Protein backbone atom coordinates (compact mmCIF):
# COMPACT_ATOMS: atom_id res chain seq x y z
CA UNK A 1 0.00 0.00 0.00
CA UNK A 2 1.08 3.56 -0.54
CA UNK A 3 2.79 5.23 2.35
CA UNK A 4 0.75 8.40 2.23
CA UNK A 5 -2.31 8.52 4.44
CA UNK A 6 -5.09 11.05 4.69
CA UNK A 7 -4.78 13.61 7.42
CA UNK A 8 -7.03 12.91 10.36
CA UNK A 9 -9.70 15.51 10.98
CA UNK A 10 -9.50 17.66 14.08
CA UNK A 11 -11.24 16.34 17.16
CA UNK A 12 -14.17 18.75 16.98
CA UNK A 13 -14.74 18.29 13.26
CA UNK A 14 -14.38 14.52 13.63
CA UNK A 15 -17.11 14.43 16.25
CA UNK A 16 -19.40 16.61 14.15
CA UNK A 17 -18.75 14.46 11.10
CA UNK A 18 -19.54 11.29 13.06
CA UNK A 19 -22.72 12.78 14.47
CA UNK A 20 -23.86 14.13 11.10
CA UNK A 21 -23.20 10.81 9.43
CA UNK A 22 -25.16 8.97 12.10
CA UNK A 23 -28.03 11.48 11.89
CA UNK A 24 -28.27 11.30 8.09
CA UNK A 25 -28.29 7.52 8.02
CA UNK A 26 -30.71 7.32 10.93
CA UNK A 27 -33.24 9.62 9.27
CA UNK A 28 -32.92 7.79 5.98
CA UNK A 29 -33.35 4.44 7.64
CA UNK A 30 -36.47 5.64 9.45
CA UNK A 31 -37.95 6.30 6.02
CA UNK A 32 -36.89 2.86 4.82
CA UNK A 33 -38.34 1.25 7.93
CA UNK A 34 -41.66 2.96 7.31
CA UNK A 35 -41.59 1.65 3.74
CA UNK A 36 -40.62 -1.85 4.84
CA UNK A 37 -43.17 -2.11 7.63
CA UNK A 38 -45.87 -0.79 5.32
CA UNK A 39 -44.84 -3.30 2.68
CA UNK A 40 -44.65 -6.08 5.24
CA UNK A 41 -48.17 -5.30 6.39
CA UNK A 42 -49.53 -5.24 2.82
CA UNK A 43 -47.73 -8.39 1.65
CA UNK A 44 -48.70 -10.30 4.81
CA UNK A 45 -52.31 -9.80 3.79
CA UNK A 46 -51.71 -10.73 0.14
CA UNK A 47 -49.55 -13.83 0.72
CA UNK A 48 -49.87 -16.82 3.03
CA UNK A 49 -47.53 -18.46 5.54
CA UNK A 50 -46.67 -21.20 3.04
CA UNK A 51 -45.52 -18.62 0.46
CA UNK A 52 -43.16 -17.09 2.98
CA UNK A 53 -42.04 -20.51 4.16
CA UNK A 54 -41.11 -21.67 0.66
CA UNK A 55 -39.22 -18.46 -0.02
CA UNK A 56 -37.40 -18.77 3.32
CA UNK A 57 -36.33 -22.32 2.41
CA UNK A 58 -34.58 -20.92 -0.65
CA UNK A 59 -33.03 -18.00 1.21
CA UNK A 60 -31.40 -20.27 3.82
CA UNK A 61 -29.26 -21.78 1.05
CA UNK A 62 -28.97 -18.77 -1.26
CA UNK A 63 -27.81 -16.57 1.61
CA UNK A 64 -24.71 -18.74 2.12
CA UNK A 65 -23.50 -17.78 -1.33
CA UNK A 66 -24.22 -14.12 -0.59
CA UNK A 67 -21.62 -14.26 2.19
CA UNK A 68 -18.98 -15.40 -0.30
CA UNK A 69 -20.02 -12.78 -2.87
CA UNK A 70 -18.69 -9.93 -0.76
CA UNK A 71 -15.70 -11.96 0.51
CA UNK A 72 -15.22 -9.35 3.23
CA UNK A 73 -13.59 -6.99 0.72
CA UNK A 74 -16.05 -4.12 1.20
CA UNK A 75 -15.03 -3.72 4.85
CA UNK A 76 -11.41 -4.31 3.85
CA UNK A 77 -11.61 -1.34 1.47
CA UNK A 78 -13.29 0.85 4.10
CA UNK A 79 -10.94 -0.07 6.94
CA UNK A 80 -7.64 0.24 5.04
CA UNK A 81 -5.57 3.32 6.00
CA UNK A 82 -4.85 3.95 2.29
CA UNK A 83 -6.35 2.65 -0.94
CA UNK A 84 -4.83 3.26 -4.36
CA UNK A 85 -6.80 3.29 -7.60
CA UNK A 86 -5.07 0.09 -8.72
CA UNK A 87 -6.11 -1.66 -5.54
CA UNK A 88 -9.68 -0.44 -5.92
CA UNK A 89 -9.78 -1.69 -9.51
CA UNK A 90 -8.58 -5.14 -8.46
CA UNK A 91 -11.16 -5.29 -5.67
CA UNK A 92 -13.95 -4.45 -8.14
CA UNK A 93 -12.99 -7.25 -10.52
CA UNK A 94 -12.55 -9.76 -7.70
CA UNK A 95 -16.01 -9.01 -6.27
CA UNK A 96 -17.60 -9.02 -9.72
CA UNK A 97 -15.96 -12.32 -10.64
CA UNK A 98 -17.07 -13.93 -7.40
CA UNK A 99 -20.63 -12.71 -7.95
CA UNK A 100 -20.75 -14.10 -11.48
CA UNK A 101 -19.28 -17.44 -10.41
CA UNK A 102 -21.79 -17.78 -7.58
CA UNK A 103 -24.65 -16.97 -9.94
CA UNK A 104 -23.56 -19.88 -12.15
CA UNK A 105 -23.03 -22.23 -9.20
CA UNK A 106 -26.48 -21.54 -7.79
CA UNK A 107 -28.04 -22.91 -10.98
CA UNK A 108 -26.69 -26.36 -10.13
CA UNK A 109 -27.21 -26.02 -6.38
CA UNK A 110 -30.91 -25.39 -7.01
CA UNK A 111 -31.50 -29.09 -7.69
CA UNK A 112 -30.05 -29.93 -4.29
CA UNK A 113 -32.35 -27.39 -2.64
CA UNK A 114 -35.39 -29.00 -4.24
CA UNK A 115 -34.23 -32.46 -3.15
CA UNK A 116 -33.39 -31.32 0.41
CA UNK A 117 -36.94 -30.14 1.11
CA UNK A 118 -38.72 -32.47 -1.30
CA UNK A 119 -40.12 -29.46 -3.16
CA UNK A 120 -39.36 -29.42 -6.92
CA UNK A 121 -40.96 -25.97 -7.27
CA UNK A 122 -37.96 -24.56 -5.37
CA UNK A 123 -35.57 -25.40 -8.25
CA UNK A 124 -36.53 -22.58 -10.68
CA UNK A 125 -37.06 -20.20 -7.75
CA UNK A 126 -33.50 -20.79 -6.49
CA UNK A 127 -32.01 -20.47 -9.97
CA UNK A 128 -33.77 -17.16 -10.49
CA UNK A 129 -32.37 -15.82 -7.22
CA UNK A 130 -28.86 -16.42 -8.57
CA UNK A 131 -29.21 -13.20 -10.57
CA UNK A 132 -28.87 -11.19 -7.35
CA UNK A 133 -25.27 -12.41 -6.89
CA UNK A 134 -24.20 -10.93 -10.20
CA UNK A 135 -25.80 -7.55 -9.48
CA UNK A 136 -24.54 -7.38 -5.89
CA UNK A 137 -21.02 -8.38 -6.90
CA UNK A 138 -20.86 -5.53 -9.39
CA UNK A 139 -22.15 -3.03 -6.81
CA UNK A 140 -19.94 -4.01 -3.86
CA UNK A 141 -16.91 -1.76 -4.41
CA UNK A 142 -18.95 1.21 -5.63
CA UNK A 143 -20.83 1.11 -2.32
CA UNK A 144 -17.59 0.62 -0.40
CA UNK A 145 -16.17 3.70 -2.15
CA UNK A 146 -19.14 5.81 -1.05
CA UNK A 147 -18.81 4.49 2.47
CA UNK A 148 -15.07 5.15 2.60
CA UNK A 149 -15.66 8.75 1.47
CA UNK A 150 -18.23 9.18 4.28
CA UNK A 151 -20.94 9.90 1.69
CA UNK A 152 -23.66 8.61 3.98
CA UNK A 153 -26.41 10.72 2.44
CA UNK A 154 -25.80 9.17 -0.97
CA UNK A 155 -25.92 5.65 0.46
CA UNK A 156 -29.12 6.45 2.31
CA UNK A 157 -30.84 7.76 -0.83
CA UNK A 158 -29.72 4.73 -2.84
CA UNK A 159 -30.99 2.27 -0.24
CA UNK A 160 -34.31 4.07 0.17
CA UNK A 161 -35.10 4.39 -3.55
CA UNK A 162 -34.12 0.77 -4.19
CA UNK A 163 -36.31 -0.48 -1.33
CA UNK A 164 -39.34 1.49 -2.54
CA UNK A 165 -38.94 0.31 -6.13
CA UNK A 166 -38.56 -3.33 -5.09
CA UNK A 167 -41.59 -3.15 -2.82
CA UNK A 168 -43.75 -1.76 -5.63
CA UNK A 169 -42.70 -4.70 -7.81
CA UNK A 170 -43.58 -7.19 -5.04
CA UNK A 171 -47.01 -5.67 -4.39
CA UNK A 172 -47.94 -5.58 -8.08
CA UNK A 173 -46.90 -9.20 -8.62
CA UNK A 174 -48.66 -10.32 -5.42
CA UNK A 175 -51.89 -8.72 -6.64
CA UNK A 176 -51.35 -10.55 -9.92
CA UNK A 177 -51.37 -13.85 -8.00
CA UNK A 178 -47.73 -14.85 -8.40
CA UNK A 179 -47.38 -15.89 -4.74
CA UNK A 180 -43.82 -16.54 -3.59
CA UNK A 181 -42.47 -15.43 -6.97
CA UNK A 182 -43.37 -11.88 -5.98
CA UNK A 183 -40.87 -12.14 -3.11
CA UNK A 184 -38.17 -13.39 -5.48
CA UNK A 185 -38.75 -10.51 -7.88
CA UNK A 186 -38.57 -8.11 -4.94
CA UNK A 187 -35.03 -9.31 -4.12
CA UNK A 188 -33.84 -9.20 -7.73
CA UNK A 189 -35.32 -5.74 -8.26
CA UNK A 190 -33.66 -4.48 -5.09
CA UNK A 191 -30.25 -5.68 -6.30
CA UNK A 192 -30.72 -4.23 -9.81
CA UNK A 193 -31.78 -0.76 -8.68
CA UNK A 194 -29.03 -0.65 -6.05
CA UNK A 195 -26.42 -1.46 -8.70
CA UNK A 196 -27.62 1.21 -11.12
CA UNK A 197 -27.78 3.95 -8.49
CA UNK A 198 -24.46 2.99 -6.84
CA UNK A 199 -22.54 3.12 -10.12
CA UNK A 200 -24.16 6.43 -11.08
CA UNK A 201 -23.47 8.01 -7.69
CA UNK A 202 -19.93 6.76 -7.04
CA UNK A 203 -18.75 8.42 -10.27
CA UNK A 204 -15.86 6.10 -11.09
CA UNK A 205 -15.32 3.38 -13.64
CA UNK A 206 -12.87 0.56 -12.92
CA UNK A 207 -9.96 -0.11 -15.19
CA UNK A 208 -8.53 -3.51 -15.96
CA UNK A 209 -6.49 -4.95 -13.06
CA UNK A 210 -2.71 -4.78 -13.30
CA UNK A 211 -0.16 -7.30 -12.14
CA UNK A 212 2.07 -6.44 -9.24
CA UNK A 213 -0.62 -4.63 -7.23
CA UNK A 214 -0.14 -5.40 -3.53
CA UNK A 215 -3.40 -6.98 -2.31
CA UNK A 216 -2.11 -9.26 0.46
CA UNK A 217 -3.54 -7.21 3.33
CA UNK A 218 -6.95 -6.95 1.68
CA UNK A 219 -7.22 -10.67 1.01
CA UNK A 220 -6.12 -11.56 4.54
CA UNK A 221 -8.66 -9.17 6.02
CA UNK A 222 -11.34 -10.40 3.62
CA UNK A 223 -10.72 -14.08 4.25
CA UNK A 224 -10.98 -13.70 8.02
CA UNK A 225 -14.12 -11.62 7.57
CA UNK A 226 -15.85 -14.01 5.18
CA UNK A 227 -14.98 -16.99 7.39
CA UNK A 228 -16.54 -15.15 10.34
CA UNK A 229 -19.64 -14.21 8.34
CA UNK A 230 -20.06 -17.76 7.07
CA UNK A 231 -20.00 -19.15 10.60
CA UNK A 232 -22.40 -16.44 11.77
CA UNK A 233 -24.73 -17.06 8.87
CA UNK A 234 -24.79 -20.81 9.43
CA UNK A 235 -25.59 -20.34 13.10
CA UNK A 236 -28.22 -17.63 12.54
CA UNK A 237 -30.03 -19.65 9.87
CA UNK A 238 -29.86 -22.99 11.63
CA UNK A 239 -33.24 -22.13 13.14
CA UNK A 240 -34.87 -21.71 9.73
CA UNK A 241 -33.27 -24.89 8.42
CA UNK A 242 -34.41 -26.94 11.43
CA UNK A 243 -37.96 -25.57 11.26
CA UNK A 244 -38.19 -26.14 7.51
CA UNK A 245 -36.97 -29.74 7.75
CA UNK A 246 -38.74 -30.78 10.96
CA UNK A 247 -41.89 -28.65 11.12
CA UNK A 248 -42.70 -27.71 7.51
CA UNK A 249 -43.28 -24.65 5.35
CA UNK A 250 -46.23 -23.26 7.35
CA UNK A 251 -44.35 -23.18 10.66
CA UNK A 252 -41.32 -21.74 8.91
CA UNK A 253 -43.58 -19.06 7.46
CA UNK A 254 -44.67 -18.00 10.96
CA UNK A 255 -41.09 -17.94 12.19
CA UNK A 256 -39.94 -16.04 9.10
CA UNK A 257 -42.63 -13.37 9.50
CA UNK A 258 -41.75 -12.77 13.14
CA UNK A 259 -38.07 -12.63 12.19
CA UNK A 260 -38.74 -10.18 9.36
CA UNK A 261 -41.11 -8.03 11.41
CA UNK A 262 -38.29 -7.55 13.90
CA UNK A 263 -35.06 -7.90 11.94
CA UNK A 264 -35.96 -5.92 8.83
CA UNK A 265 -36.35 -2.58 10.65
CA UNK A 266 -33.67 -3.47 13.20
CA UNK A 267 -31.09 -4.29 10.54
CA UNK A 268 -32.01 -1.14 8.65
CA UNK A 269 -30.97 0.84 11.71
CA UNK A 270 -27.98 -1.23 12.81
CA UNK A 271 -26.38 -1.46 9.37
CA UNK A 272 -25.99 2.30 8.87
CA UNK A 273 -24.68 2.64 12.42
CA UNK A 274 -21.94 0.20 11.44
CA UNK A 275 -21.52 2.00 8.11
CA UNK A 276 -20.71 5.18 10.05
CA UNK A 277 -18.75 3.57 12.89
CA UNK A 278 -16.22 1.46 11.00
CA UNK A 279 -14.64 4.12 8.76
CA UNK A 280 -14.61 6.68 11.57
CA UNK A 281 -13.31 4.33 14.26
CA UNK A 282 -10.71 2.97 11.86
CA UNK A 283 -9.21 6.45 11.70
CA UNK A 284 -9.01 6.50 15.50
CA UNK A 285 -7.74 2.96 15.98
CA UNK A 286 -4.41 4.12 17.48
CA UNK A 287 -5.81 7.06 19.48
CA UNK A 288 -7.01 5.00 22.42
CA UNK A 289 -8.60 7.67 24.60
CA UNK A 290 -10.64 9.16 21.76
CA UNK A 291 -11.49 5.67 20.52
CA UNK A 292 -12.82 4.65 23.96
CA UNK A 293 -14.91 7.81 24.22
CA UNK A 294 -16.56 7.20 20.86
CA UNK A 295 -17.20 3.54 21.66
CA UNK A 296 -19.04 4.51 24.83
CA UNK A 297 -21.03 7.12 22.91
CA UNK A 298 -21.96 4.49 20.36
CA UNK A 299 -23.25 2.24 23.11
CA UNK A 300 -25.36 5.06 24.53
CA UNK A 301 -26.90 5.82 21.14
CA UNK A 302 -27.73 2.17 20.50
CA UNK A 303 -29.12 1.68 24.00
CA UNK A 304 -31.44 4.66 24.11
CA UNK A 305 -32.74 4.24 20.56
CA UNK A 306 -32.78 0.67 19.29
CA UNK A 307 -32.75 -1.24 22.58
CA UNK A 308 -35.33 1.11 24.07
CA UNK A 309 -37.55 0.59 21.05
CA UNK A 310 -37.18 -3.17 21.27
CA UNK A 311 -38.33 -3.11 24.89
CA UNK A 312 -41.45 -1.23 23.85
CA UNK A 313 -42.22 -3.66 21.01
CA UNK A 314 -41.77 -6.63 23.35
CA UNK A 315 -44.29 -5.18 25.76
CA UNK A 316 -46.79 -4.38 23.00
CA UNK A 317 -46.12 -7.45 20.84
CA UNK A 318 -49.76 -8.56 20.55
CA UNK A 319 -51.17 -5.28 19.16
CA UNK A 320 -48.06 -4.84 16.99
CA UNK A 321 -48.67 -8.21 15.32
CA UNK A 322 -52.40 -7.51 14.98
CA UNK A 323 -51.80 -4.17 13.23
CA UNK A 324 -48.82 -4.98 11.02
CA UNK A 325 -49.50 -8.60 10.09
CA UNK A 326 -53.17 -9.22 10.81
CA UNK A 327 -55.13 -11.57 13.04
CA UNK A 328 -54.17 -14.69 11.05
CA UNK A 329 -50.58 -14.23 12.24
CA UNK A 330 -51.36 -14.29 15.99
CA UNK A 331 -49.07 -17.30 16.48
CA UNK A 332 -46.14 -14.99 15.75
CA UNK A 333 -46.45 -13.14 19.09
CA UNK A 334 -44.50 -15.44 21.47
CA UNK A 335 -41.86 -16.05 18.80
CA UNK A 336 -41.47 -12.31 18.31
CA UNK A 337 -40.89 -11.69 22.01
CA UNK A 338 -38.01 -14.18 22.17
CA UNK A 339 -36.49 -12.77 19.01
CA UNK A 340 -36.65 -9.27 20.51
CA UNK A 341 -34.47 -10.46 23.39
CA UNK A 342 -31.99 -11.76 20.83
CA UNK A 343 -32.14 -8.52 18.86
CA UNK A 344 -31.50 -6.36 21.92
CA UNK A 345 -28.34 -8.18 22.98
CA UNK A 346 -27.13 -8.51 19.39
CA UNK A 347 -27.48 -4.73 19.13
CA UNK A 348 -25.48 -4.12 22.29
CA UNK A 349 -22.81 -6.51 20.96
CA UNK A 350 -22.36 -4.35 17.87
CA UNK A 351 -19.99 -2.19 19.91
CA UNK A 352 -17.63 -5.15 20.29
CA UNK A 353 -17.96 -5.91 16.58
CA UNK A 354 -16.93 -2.35 15.72
CA UNK A 355 -13.78 -2.78 17.79
CA UNK A 356 -12.91 -6.09 16.13
CA UNK A 357 -13.28 -4.71 12.60
CA UNK A 358 -11.90 -1.17 13.02
CA UNK A 359 -8.74 -2.52 14.66
CA UNK A 360 -8.41 -5.29 12.05
CA UNK A 361 -8.82 -8.05 14.65
CA UNK A 362 -10.65 -10.25 12.16
CA UNK A 363 -8.74 -13.39 13.13
CA UNK A 364 -9.76 -12.95 16.76
CA UNK A 365 -13.33 -12.24 15.64
CA UNK A 366 -13.40 -15.47 13.63
CA UNK A 367 -12.26 -17.57 16.59
CA UNK A 368 -14.79 -15.89 18.85
CA UNK A 369 -17.55 -16.48 16.31
CA UNK A 370 -16.77 -20.20 16.18
CA UNK A 371 -17.56 -20.41 19.88
CA UNK A 372 -20.77 -18.37 19.78
CA UNK A 373 -22.00 -20.14 16.65
CA UNK A 374 -21.57 -23.51 18.34
CA UNK A 375 -23.59 -22.22 21.28
CA UNK A 376 -26.39 -20.97 19.05
CA UNK A 377 -26.65 -24.19 17.03
CA UNK A 378 -26.75 -26.27 20.21
CA UNK A 379 -29.43 -24.08 21.81
CA UNK A 380 -31.58 -24.08 18.64
CA UNK A 381 -31.42 -27.86 18.28
CA UNK A 382 -32.37 -28.33 21.93
CA UNK A 383 -35.18 -25.77 21.66
CA UNK A 384 -36.63 -27.43 18.56
CA UNK A 385 -37.99 -30.18 20.82
CA UNK A 386 -40.67 -27.64 21.84
CA UNK A 387 -41.60 -26.43 18.38
CA UNK A 388 -41.10 -23.04 16.77
CA UNK A 389 -41.34 -21.17 20.11
CA UNK A 390 -38.62 -23.40 21.55
CA UNK A 391 -36.41 -22.65 18.55
CA UNK A 392 -36.89 -18.90 19.12
CA UNK A 393 -36.03 -19.30 22.80
CA UNK A 394 -32.83 -21.15 21.95
CA UNK A 395 -31.97 -18.51 19.37
CA UNK A 396 -32.39 -15.79 22.02
CA UNK A 397 -30.32 -17.49 24.72
CA UNK A 398 -27.03 -17.33 22.79
CA UNK A 399 -26.63 -13.52 22.45
CA UNK A 400 -27.56 -13.07 26.12
CA UNK A 401 -24.63 -15.27 27.10
CA UNK A 402 -22.28 -14.10 24.34
CA UNK A 403 -22.20 -10.40 25.16
CA UNK A 404 -20.00 -10.64 28.28
CA UNK A 405 -17.91 -13.26 26.49
CA UNK A 406 -17.26 -10.77 23.67
CA UNK A 407 -15.94 -8.15 26.09
CA UNK A 408 -13.64 -10.67 27.78
CA UNK A 409 -12.43 -11.92 24.40
CA UNK A 410 -11.52 -8.42 23.26
CA UNK A 411 -9.43 -7.79 26.36
CA UNK A 412 -7.10 -10.56 25.21
CA UNK A 413 -6.16 -8.58 22.09
CA UNK A 414 -6.66 -4.87 22.67
CA UNK A 415 -7.48 -2.17 25.15
CA UNK A 416 -11.17 -1.35 25.71
CA UNK A 417 -13.05 0.45 28.54
CA UNK A 418 -14.39 -2.74 30.13
CA UNK A 419 -15.99 -1.39 33.30
CA UNK A 420 -17.93 1.48 31.64
CA UNK A 421 -19.11 -0.87 28.88
CA UNK A 422 -20.37 -3.52 31.30
CA UNK A 423 -22.06 -1.01 33.59
CA UNK A 424 -23.60 0.63 30.55
CA UNK A 425 -25.15 -2.62 29.33
CA UNK A 426 -26.54 -3.40 32.78
CA UNK A 427 -28.05 0.08 32.97
CA UNK A 428 -29.46 0.11 29.42
CA UNK A 429 -30.94 -3.39 29.58
CA UNK A 430 -32.46 -2.77 33.01
CA UNK A 431 -34.28 0.38 31.94
CA UNK A 432 -35.44 -1.33 28.73
CA UNK A 433 -36.76 -4.29 30.73
CA UNK A 434 -38.72 -2.11 33.15
CA UNK A 435 -40.03 -0.03 30.26
CA UNK A 436 -41.12 -3.19 28.43
CA UNK A 437 -42.96 -4.50 31.49
CA UNK A 438 -44.73 -1.16 31.93
CA UNK A 439 -45.70 -1.22 28.24
CA UNK A 440 -47.07 -4.76 28.60
CA UNK A 441 -49.12 -3.79 31.66
CA UNK A 442 -50.53 -0.68 29.97
CA UNK A 443 -51.43 -2.52 26.76
CA UNK A 444 -53.14 -5.30 28.72
CA UNK A 445 -55.23 -2.87 30.76
CA UNK A 446 -56.61 -1.10 27.67
CA UNK A 447 -56.93 -4.27 25.52
CA UNK A 448 -60.73 -3.89 25.06
CA UNK A 449 -60.10 -0.54 23.33
CA UNK A 450 -58.26 -2.18 20.43
CA UNK A 451 -54.68 -2.51 19.20
CA UNK A 452 -54.12 1.14 18.25
CA UNK A 453 -55.02 2.34 21.74
CA UNK A 454 -52.91 -0.48 23.19
CA UNK A 455 -49.82 0.71 21.33
CA UNK A 456 -50.42 4.31 22.34
CA UNK A 457 -50.83 3.34 26.00
CA UNK A 458 -47.72 1.13 25.87
CA UNK A 459 -45.69 3.97 24.33
CA UNK A 460 -46.76 6.43 27.03
CA UNK A 461 -45.95 3.94 29.80
CA UNK A 462 -42.53 3.23 28.31
CA UNK A 463 -41.72 6.95 28.00
CA UNK A 464 -42.77 7.54 31.60
CA UNK A 465 -40.33 4.86 32.77
CA UNK A 466 -37.45 6.45 30.86
CA UNK A 467 -38.36 9.93 32.14
CA UNK A 468 -38.46 8.70 35.75
CA UNK A 469 -35.17 6.86 35.29
CA UNK A 470 -33.54 10.06 34.01
CA UNK A 471 -34.83 11.96 37.04
CA UNK A 472 -33.97 9.37 39.69
CA UNK A 473 -30.83 7.62 38.42
CA UNK A 474 -27.79 9.92 37.98
CA UNK A 475 -26.08 7.60 35.50
CA UNK A 476 -29.15 7.57 33.25
CA UNK A 477 -29.35 11.35 33.52
CA UNK A 478 -25.72 11.62 32.37
CA UNK A 479 -26.51 9.32 29.45
CA UNK A 480 -29.40 11.55 28.40
CA UNK A 481 -27.18 14.64 28.55
CA UNK A 482 -24.60 12.84 26.40
CA UNK A 483 -27.32 11.86 23.93
CA UNK A 484 -28.48 15.48 23.67
CA UNK A 485 -24.91 16.62 23.01
CA UNK A 486 -24.57 14.05 20.23
CA UNK A 487 -27.83 15.27 18.68
CA UNK A 488 -26.63 18.89 18.86
CA UNK A 489 -23.37 17.91 17.17
CA UNK A 490 -25.37 16.27 14.39
CA UNK A 491 -27.18 19.54 13.70
CA UNK A 492 -23.93 21.54 13.51
CA UNK A 493 -22.72 21.88 9.96
CA UNK A 494 -19.06 22.09 9.15
CA UNK A 495 -17.08 21.71 5.94
CA UNK A 496 -17.85 18.59 3.99
CA UNK A 497 -15.07 16.00 3.66
CA UNK A 498 -13.38 16.07 0.32
CA UNK A 499 -14.68 13.21 -1.81
CA UNK A 500 -12.18 10.88 -3.32
CA UNK A 501 -14.43 9.42 -5.95
CA UNK A 502 -14.78 12.41 -8.21
CA UNK A 503 -12.16 12.82 -10.88
CA UNK A 504 -10.12 9.69 -11.36
CA UNK A 505 -6.74 9.96 -9.59
CA UNK A 506 -3.48 8.78 -11.04
CA UNK A 507 -2.32 5.21 -10.48
CA UNK A 508 -0.10 6.26 -7.61
CA UNK A 509 -2.65 8.45 -5.88
CA UNK A 510 -4.26 7.20 -2.70
CA UNK A 511 -8.00 7.27 -2.14
CA UNK A 512 -8.99 8.66 1.20
TrEMBL record:
Keyword annotations: Cell membrane, Membrane, Transmembrane, Transmembrane helix
Subcellular location: Cell membrane
UniProt signal peptide: none
GO cellular component, as recorded: plasma membrane
CDD domains: MATE_tuaB_like
Top-level taxon in the UniProt lineage: Bacteria
Main localization of the protein described in the UniProt heading: membrane
Topology versus the membrane: Multi-pass membrane protein
Positions of region (Disordered): 492-512
Transmembrane segments: 21-46, 52-69, 90-116, 122-140, 152-177, 183-205, 300-326, 338-357, 364-382, 388-410, 422-446, 452-473
Similarity field: Belongs to the polysaccharide synthase family.
Annotated protein name in UniProt: Lipopolysaccharide biosynthesis protein
Organism: Labedella endophytica
Organism ancestry: Bacteria, Bacillati, Actinomycetota, Actinomycetes, Micrococcales
Amino acid sequence: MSARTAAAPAAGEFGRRAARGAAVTFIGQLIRIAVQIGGLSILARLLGATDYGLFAMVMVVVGVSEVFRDFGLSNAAVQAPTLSTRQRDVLFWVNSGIGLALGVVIVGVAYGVGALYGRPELIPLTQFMGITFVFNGLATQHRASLNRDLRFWSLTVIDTVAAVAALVVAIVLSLAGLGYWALAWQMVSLAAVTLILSVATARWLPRLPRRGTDMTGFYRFGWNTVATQLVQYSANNMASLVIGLRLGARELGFYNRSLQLLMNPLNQLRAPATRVAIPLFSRLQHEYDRFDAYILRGQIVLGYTLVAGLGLVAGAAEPVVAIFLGEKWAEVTPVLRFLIVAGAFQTLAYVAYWVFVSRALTGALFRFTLITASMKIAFVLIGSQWGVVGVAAGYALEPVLSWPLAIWWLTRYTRIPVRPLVLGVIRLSSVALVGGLAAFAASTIVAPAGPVVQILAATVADLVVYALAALVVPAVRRDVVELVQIANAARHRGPRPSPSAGAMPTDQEDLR
